[in-house]
């Protein structure tokens, strides 16, 4: 890695200065993309969200309800002229409630990824030569292999739906294999939680954690606001308790979040109190809390010998002293938990806190939640909201053993990229022992390199499917576009091969249904419609479910408390402490990159990490203490060594890290994902989470950061206050710079008059968690280009929203506050007065408008903006996009060209659309009818938009809130965006 490394994230210009345009055929050789829409409607009947249009009307969007398969979240797909251009949350769906994460928002770009596999391939294993084949030829060859193979296995990622799982099992039974022949694997699967649930309650589940009912949340390493569990639903539920509750601020109530962790997570950044601990110490804290509660507060298990044996050595005083916590901290926390029993919640674990004692930690957490009477209140162990692998990782390792023993004749890989995710197992040589390997995937990934057949699968927006996220929710996934390439769904392939084999098929396969769509529909008719005794006809039920995106059982789910099995405490084993001289490597999952499956998505690669604000790379996080000890500086390249394996990578000196820990994000280091994502960062999966050596190399690598100043230098640009101070004086923190005075200013400009609406926004910093969903939502809505690593390095990023992250307090364990910063649409906008060509003007409704056709690129406005939120197009970024990527553009928003300034418009196209809709209906625009893209996708509902001239609007009321303040108010710009002061619950007593 070097400073001169080629930036394969985006090619700005070629040698001749002309952007590269590769014209691709999407719908057949007779249709070139230039100048025509060229998108077919899906073959099967799909139902729009509200009404079914008789035909596509040019210029009018159609909406379709669907489901994101990896998460079960309900989505709405916006299509224009038959092509999906935007994803939004389904407000009716209980898992999304109208919001979406950055990853799901960005998945629409994956649909148009030019590096998707477009046709089936046959690979010669010896020469590695590739042959493009027709599906007919593939089906003939594969069917013959299936008929002659006696030991068939299917390895897939976690399947999202019951219907697909049924199809896989029936397929294997048809070819003489049992149910254990299907193995599921996911690198971030929470096996320790499921295993501990089985030991504690005799059921393999991932319980539903209801943060909306918890007044006190303790996280022992669980990043539940970002990547742990169901972060979208959890963030929304947690934020509900972060709303200040009371009619009088003197009695305000606010929930409390306490985190114990080694790596600085997004959840830790939002904590009221955060304690930096060594890896493995989470278990000691849990057991010390249990010791205090059982022996001094509850007395329920104080005579149980199993409990006594497990807890007796974890006295709070001893554990507090060992960890260097404030004296009496664990006892105080235990008392607070006991006082809030039934209103508290303890969670823990996750990829960043995996140790040899991770199952023991989960058992201790289960015990605490049971003792604290949280079962059936904040913990629901009967709803089963997350897909659980039947046998966990044990079946996967048995499969590997069977391959080594020659017990597998044919292996079908369904989106299982195990060569990337498990490089340490040397699986490439192992898979070569299988006579036939079939890879069903969306691209030629790392594992496909060893396959005999590489078969292109549909994108989920091209495919049917279902999901069963909870016992009472059944979600449907419907296509919003016909396949762009010669792809076929994994499910359709199984159906075709079964029919072609001519064998006696089992279950629904025996009915010889013509397609996966018919199989799915028939399964719903037999297993959902009939078993739930629905009164409507099946066709009516089916169409209504497609319109809504899901079906919810009419019987209301009632959680019931489970009985904790104290015998599970026998499995508790103390974590081995880290020697002071050792450095422990920890993994974590970034919000944007996840497990790396979306590594070729440029939107996600360029999304700033909320903690480090770095884009395009992973890096080694090191604490200031350890960096000083190793004499390492920011952007230094170090060698990370574990045994004989080593890699070089840059360093970020990260506040809030434990001094014995270095952390590395997974999901990077892909070598076969596409032109955007190849060779970005290093593969963390090539290491294990244990001791490592870190050595300075003397080299330097500049990371692409979006923020260089991390403290406010005591400038009042962002406000926070403790709950106790807020109760005394709600507006105590809302003061301007004491060195400046606001006086009655004389101006040559007349005051603006607003006879109609005046659009404004309010952002509650108590709710904003810094997740970045708004950044990607805005990018998708407003055609914001990707500029690449090199341009971000020189501050030429184009995002209209940036999320500023500021530290305060102890530099080794600081408090954090996030502030979304976008165009403030100032009444006295400094940008408007300096533009020589009137390209920046003020509208009659308070919008600071940018007239692209007038702009000549002087950049005076950018220089004069005190908020630094204007973006300049130094290049024609759109010319560097592959042609298929242009299909993702929103036709309602102009694509900007080189030399043009741009910035947030308050989604003026949505304002215009709402006006036209109200005019057609002969009605007025109601408060809430208009939602900006950032507001709509925000998981915590931190953003409110509306007419500030309407005294009854939500935004008008928030602007009058005692916590409301405006940034740089002293310079008299009069911004249209108000922020609500962040309130921290630092009190040990319940807020």
Explain what you see.
The chain is α/β, with parallel strands linked by helices and 991 residues long. The protein folds into four domains: 188 residues, Rossmann fold (3-Layer(aba) Sandwich); 190 residues, Dimethylsulfoxide Reductase, domain 2; 123 residues, Barwin-like endoglucanases; 232 residues, Alpha-Beta Plaits. The chain is built from 27 helices and 39 strands. The strands form twelve sheets. It has a seven-stranded mixed β-sheet, with helices on both faces. The protein has a six-stranded mixed β-barrel with strand order 20-25-22-24-23-26. A four-stranded parallel β-sheet has the order 11-10-9-12. A hairpin with a 2-residue loop joins strand 2 and strand 3. It is globular. The N terminus is likely disordered.
What does the secondary structure layout of this molecule look like, with pairings?
Layout: E1 62-67, E2 74-80, E3 83-89, H1 102-111, E4 121-123, E5 130-132, H2 135-148, E6 152-156, H3 162-174, E7 182-184, H4 191-201, E8 208-209, E9 216-220, H5 231-240, E10 256-261, H6 266-269, E11 273-276, H7 281-298, H8 305-311, H9 316-323, H10 329-339, E12 344-348, H11 358-371, E13 379-380, H12 393-404, E14 410-414, H13 418-421, H14 427-431, E15 436-441, E16 453-456, E17 465-470, E18 473-477, H15 490-501, H16 516-529, H17 538-548, E19 550-552, E20 583-589, H18 602-605, E21 614-615, E22 620-622, H19 624-630, E23 636-642, E24 645-653, E25 661-666, E26 691-700, E27 704-705, E28 720-722, H20 723-728, E29 759-764, H21 773-781, H22 789-793, E30 802-808, E31 815-821, H23 830-834, E32 840-842, E33 848-850, H24 860-864, E34 871-872, E35 901-902, H25 908-921, H26 933-937, E36 943-947, H27 954-959, E37 964-965, E38 977-980, E39 982-984
């Amino acid at each position: 890695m070097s400073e001169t490394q080629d930036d394969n994230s985006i090619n700005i210009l070629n040698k001749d200065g002309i952007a590269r345009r590769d014209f691709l055929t999407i719908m057949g050789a007779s249709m070139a993309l230039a100048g025509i829409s060229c998108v077919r409607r899906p073959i099967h009947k799909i139902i729009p969200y509200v009404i079914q249009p008789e035909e596509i009307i040019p210029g009018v969007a159609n909406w379709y309800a669907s489901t994101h398969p990896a998460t079960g979240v309900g989505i709405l797909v916006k299509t224009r002229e038959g092509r999906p251009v935007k994803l939004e949350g389904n407000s009716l769906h209980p898992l999304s409630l109208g919001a979406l994460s950055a990853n799901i928002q960005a998945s629409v770009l994956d649909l148009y990824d030019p590096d998707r596999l477009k046709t089936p391939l046959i690979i010669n294993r010896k020469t590695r030569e590739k042959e493009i084949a027709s599906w007919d030829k593939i089906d003939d060859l594969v069917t013959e292999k299936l008929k002659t193979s006696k030991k068939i296995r299917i390895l897939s990622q976690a399947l999202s739906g019951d219907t697909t799982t049924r199809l896989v099992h029936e397929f294997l039974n048809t070819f003489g294999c049992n149910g254990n022949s299907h193995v599921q694997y996911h690198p971030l699967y929470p096996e320790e939680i499921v295993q501990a649930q089985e030991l504690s309650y005799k059921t393999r589940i991932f319980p539903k954690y209801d943060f909306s009912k918890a007044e006190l949340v303790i996280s022992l390493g669980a990043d539940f606001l970002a990547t742990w569990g169901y972060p979208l639903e959890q963030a929304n539920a947690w934020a509900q308790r972060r709303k200040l509750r009371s009619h009088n601020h003197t009695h305000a109530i606010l929930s409390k979040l306490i985190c114990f962790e080694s790596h600085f997570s997004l959840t830790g950044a939002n904590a009221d109190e955060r304690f930096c601990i060594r890896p493995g110490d989470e278990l000691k804290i849990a057991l010390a809390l249990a010791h205090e509660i059982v022996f001094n507060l509850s007395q329920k298990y104080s005579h149980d010998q199993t409990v006594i044996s497990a807890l007796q050595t974890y006295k709070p005083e001893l554990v507090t002293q060992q960890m260097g916590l404030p004296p009496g901290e664990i006892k105080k926390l235990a008392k607070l938990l006991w006082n809030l029993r039934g209103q508290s919640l303890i969670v823990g674990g996750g990829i960043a806190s995996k140790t040899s004692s991770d199952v023991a930690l989960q058992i201790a957490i289960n015990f605490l939640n049971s003792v604290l009477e949280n079962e059936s209140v904040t913990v629901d162990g009967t709803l089963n909201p997350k897909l659980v692998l039947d046998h966990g990782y044990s079946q996967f390792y048995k499969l590997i053993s069977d391959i080594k023993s020659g017990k597998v004749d044919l292996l079908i890989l369904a989106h299982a990229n195990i060569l990337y995710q498990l490089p340490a197992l040397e699986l490439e040589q192992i898979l070569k022992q299988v006579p036939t390997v079939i890879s069903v995937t969306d691209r030629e990934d790392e594992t496909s390199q060893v396959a005999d057949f590489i078969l292109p699968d549909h994108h989920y927006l091209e495919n049917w499917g279902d999901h069963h996220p909870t016992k009472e929710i059944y979600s449907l996934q419907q296509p919003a576009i016909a396949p762009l390439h010669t792809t076929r769904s994994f499910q359709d392939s199984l159906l075709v091969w079964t029919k072609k084999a001519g064998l006696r098929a089992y279950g629904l396969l025996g009915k010889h249904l013509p397609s996966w769509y018919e199989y799915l529909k028939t399964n719903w008719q037999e297993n959902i419609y009939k078993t739930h005794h629905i009164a409507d006809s099946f066709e009516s039920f089916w169409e209504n479910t497609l319109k809504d995106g899901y079906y919810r059982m009419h019987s209301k789910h009632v959680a019931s408390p489970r009985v904790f099995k104290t015998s599970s405490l026998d499995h508790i084993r103390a974590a081995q402490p880290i020697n002071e001289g050792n450095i422990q490597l920890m993994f974590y999952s970034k919000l944007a990159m996840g497990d790396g499956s979306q590594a070729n998505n440029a939107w996600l690669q360029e999304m700033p990490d909320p903690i480090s604000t770095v884009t395009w790379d992973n890096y080694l996080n090191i604490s200031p203490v350890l960096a000083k000890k190793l004499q390492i500086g920011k952007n230094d390249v170090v060698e990370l060594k574990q045994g004989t394996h080593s890699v070089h990578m840059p360093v970020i000196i990260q506040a809030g890290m434990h001094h014995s820990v270095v952390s590395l994000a997974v999901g990077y280091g892909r070598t076969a994902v596409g032109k955007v994502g190849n060779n970005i960062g290093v593969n963390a999966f090539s290491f294990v989470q244990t001791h490592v050596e870190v050595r300075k190399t003397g080299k330097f690598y500049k990371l692409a950061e979006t923020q260089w100043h991390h403290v406010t230098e005591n400038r009042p640009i962002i406000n926070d206050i403790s709950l106790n101070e807020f109760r005394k004086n709600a507006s105590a923190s809302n003061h301007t710079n004491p060195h400046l005075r606001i006086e009655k200013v004389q101006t040559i400009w007349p005051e603006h008059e607003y006879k109609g609406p005046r659009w404004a926004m309010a952002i509650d910093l108590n709710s904003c968690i810094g997740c970045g969903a708004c950044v990607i939502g805005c990018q998708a809505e407003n055609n914001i280009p990707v500029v690449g690593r090199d341009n971000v390095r020189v501050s030429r990023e184009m995002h209209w929203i940036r999320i500023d992250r500021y530290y305060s307090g102890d530099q080794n364990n600081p408090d954090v506050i996030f502030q979304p910063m976008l165009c403030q649409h100032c009444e006295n906008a400094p940008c408007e007065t300096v533009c020589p060509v009137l390209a920046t003007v003020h509208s009659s409704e308070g919008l600071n408008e940018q007239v692209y056709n007038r702009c000549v690129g002087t950049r005076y406005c950018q220089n004069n903006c005190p908020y630094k939120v204007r973006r300049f197009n130094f290049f024609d970024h759109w010319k560097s996009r592959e042609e298929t990527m242009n299909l993702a553009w929103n036709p309602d928003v102009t694509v900007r060209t080189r030399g043009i300034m741009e910035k947030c418009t308050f989604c003026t196209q949505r304002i215009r659309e709402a006006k036209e809709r109200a005019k057609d209906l002969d009605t007025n625009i109601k408060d809430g009818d208009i939602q900006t893209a950032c507001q709509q996708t925000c998981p915590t509902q931190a953003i409110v938009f509306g007419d500030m001239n309407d005294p009854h609007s939500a935004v008008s009321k928030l602007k009058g809130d005692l916590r409301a303040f405006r940034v740089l108010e002293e310079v008299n710009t009069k911004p249209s965006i108000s922020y609500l002061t962040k309130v921290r619950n630092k009190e040990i007593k319940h807020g």
